[in-house]
């Protein structure tokens, strides 16, 4: 039977009024960093294959990796490794049904964000 009260029901929230939550943003970033790590790994594999192929191919690949673009890609890959690792640890904690309370989940989210930036800075300083 047709629903005659269709106009009286509330509408679902629209994206324009939806406020993204830290947990959803960190989850999305985990997926993005996983894919970005694949692209960074492909650059490294290309560089290694070029080194094994010929000096001319290596010059091109080395120029790309040592350019501003390449350095930014490698810096982004360092951050992505740390972010993805810390987010994975957070998910391992959640898999044990620990830290699922909203306040703890937000603390873990900020730990992943701030921790990944700090670990990236430490890695760049050490390397």
Can you tell me about this structure?
Helix content is 76%, strand content 0%. The chain has 127 residues and is mostly helical. It has a single domain, classed as Fumarate reductase/succinate dehydrogenase, transmembrane subunit (3 helical TM bundles of succinate and fumarate reductases, Up-down Bundle). Helix 3 packs antiparallel against helix 4.
Report helical residue fraction: over 70%
Rg calculated over all Cα atoms: 22 Å
Count of helical segments? Answer: 4
Q: Could you tell me the number of beta strands?
A: 0
Q: Give the rounded overall mean pLDDT.
A: 91
Q: Which architecture does the CATH hierarchy give at level 2?
A: Up-down Bundle
Percentage of residues in strands: under 5%
Structural class: mainly alpha
**CATH superfamily (homologous) name:** Fumarate reductase/succinate dehydrogenase, transmembrane subunit
Low-confidence runs: none
CATH class: Mainly Alpha
Measured between the Cα atoms of the first and last residue, the distance is 69 Å
Main sheet summary: none
- As for the CATH topology, it is 3 helical TM bundles of succinate and fumarate reductases
- What gross morphology would you assign? elongated
Order of helices and strands: HHHH
């Amino acid at each position: 039977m047709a629903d005659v009260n269709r106009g009286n029901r509330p509408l679902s929230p629209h994206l324009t009024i939806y406020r993204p939550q830290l947990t959803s943003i960190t989850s999305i970033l985990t997926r993005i960093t996983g894919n970005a790590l694949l692209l960074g790994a492909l650059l490294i594999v290309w560089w290694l294959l070029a080194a094994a192929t010929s000096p001319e191919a290596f010059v091109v690949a080395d120029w790309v990796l040592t350019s501003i673009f390449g350095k930014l890609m490698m810096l982004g890959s360092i951050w992505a490794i740390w972010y993805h690792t810390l987010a994975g640890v957070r998910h391992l904690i959640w898999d044990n049904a620990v830290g699922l309370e909203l306040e703890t989940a937000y603390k873990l989210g900020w730990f992943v964000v701030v921790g990944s930036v700090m670990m990236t800075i430490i890695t760049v300083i050490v390397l």
